[in-house]
Amino acid sequence: MYKKAILLGLLGYIAGCIIGLCFALSSEGFGLTSSLPQILLGGIPGAIAMGSVVIYDVEEWSILRATVTHFLVAMGAILFGCFVLGWFKPWSTSFWIMLAIEFAAYLLIWLIMYRCFRAKVRKLNELLKENREKENSRPD
Amino acid sequence: MISGKVKIRIDINPSCREPEVIIRTSENTSFIDNLIITIERYAEGEYSPVAAYKKGTLVLLDQWEIWRIYTESRKVMIRAESGEYESRQPLRDLEEMLDQDCFVRISRFEIVNLRRVSAFDFSQSGTIRVIFEDGSETWVARRYVQAIQQTLKKTEAKKEGERNV
Q1: Chain A stretch 32-61, residues whose beta carbon is closer than 8 A to a beta carbon of chain B
Q2: B91: which chain A residues are within 8 Å (Cβ-Cβ)?
Q3: B30-158: which CATH number, 1.10.3720.10, 2.40.50.1020, 3.40.50.800, 1.20.1440.20?
Q4: What is the pLDDT of residue B1?
Q5: Which of A120, B84, B89, B141 has the fewest Cβ atoms within 10 angstroms?
Q6: How far is CA B45 from CA A2, B25, B48, in A?
Q7: From the candidates A116, A120, A133, which should be mutated to test the interface with B, based on the most B CB atoms within 10 A?
Q8: Per-residue pLDDT for B144 more than 50?
Q9: What are the sequence ranges of the domains in chain B?
Q10: Could you report the per-residue pLDDT of B37-78, keeping only the tens digit for each?
């Protein structure tokens, strides 16, 4: 799990750097030297958000618990980008829109996973029932 | 309900070309099914009892009587019809020797006997649970659901084949 977290974290770091670069390019007075710290720090929220995907691999946790935990971690990463890196103006409209999008995305993730596993469990019960029926009708 | 007691009578007949087992019973129960499976496995040379310990005493458990094998505080525990036992073999080794049609891994910490499972349950929060015949429960890791499904499908196909023979 740690290996996976590190690998995903590295991918997230690269993605975060790219996002940081996009924000730096869109801001006034872009210069590679002056924007470099912002770009490199931009990788941190990306690494946190991606690396923490392994939360879903914690076997004991329910889908709800894993989704809520990852949502909170990802929200922390967004707040870092907002307050430390200045990606969004805190408490602005774009800040709230960002949070709303994040909330909707996680709600959708939870809903898809919930329905998918509910269907799988239903299938397991069907197979179990069919197995029992075949067992009971064994020829003497 | 028919449970653990079985009368055994041996009829030695020189005209018998191969041993024949006839089970006389008032009803077909899961106990009878398990008895048939045990005899079949033994005859096919697949049968291997599981060594378990209770208060330091070695007991050989028939596979069909095992409900679940799980890890608890770094110990491998076996829950069988006759009680709780401890195993000195790691879960992975036990998994290899168990009947692949009946036993399936449900998490990193547990293997269950599907013949002892009455149903699977999915809670509101998204936890998958196994409910045993006696009403006891344990949880299933999501990543093992596919493997459980495949085992059940494989067993079903095998039974279908046996019926058609």
Answers
A1: 57, 59-60
A2: none
A3: 2.40.50.1020
A4: 42
A5: B84
A6: 42, 26, 8
A7: A120
A8: yes
A9: 30-158
A10: 778 777 776 667 888 999 888 888 988 889 999 999 999 999
B/e letters for A51-88, b = 16+ CB within 10 Å, e = fewer, are: bbbbbbeebebbbbebbbebbebbbebbebbbeebebb
Q: How far apart are CA B76 and CA B90, in angstroms?
A: 7
Selecting from A127, A134, A138 the residue whose C-beta is nearest the C-beta of B153 gives A127
* Average pLDDT estimate for A93-100: 88
Contacts of B149 in chain A (CB under 8 A): 120, 123-124, 127
Taking only Cα atoms into account, the Rg of chain B, rounded to an integer number of angstroms, comes to: 18
Q: How confident is the model at residue B165 (pLDDT cuts 50, 70, 90)?
A: low
Say if residue B6's pLDDT is above 90. no
Give the closest residue to A49 by CA, choosing from A84, A14, A83, A3: A14
Are residues A84 and A55 in contact, defined by beta-carbon separation less than 8 angstroms? no
Which long-range contacts (C-beta less than 8 Å, at least 24 apart) are formed by A57-63?
A57/A1, A57/A4, A57/B143, A59/B107, A59/B108, A59/B109, A59/B141, A59/B142, A59/B143, A60/B139, A60/B141, A62/B123, A62/B125, A62/B126, A62/B127, A63/A110, A63/A113, A63/A114, A63/A117, A63/B125, A63/B126, A63/B127, A63/B142
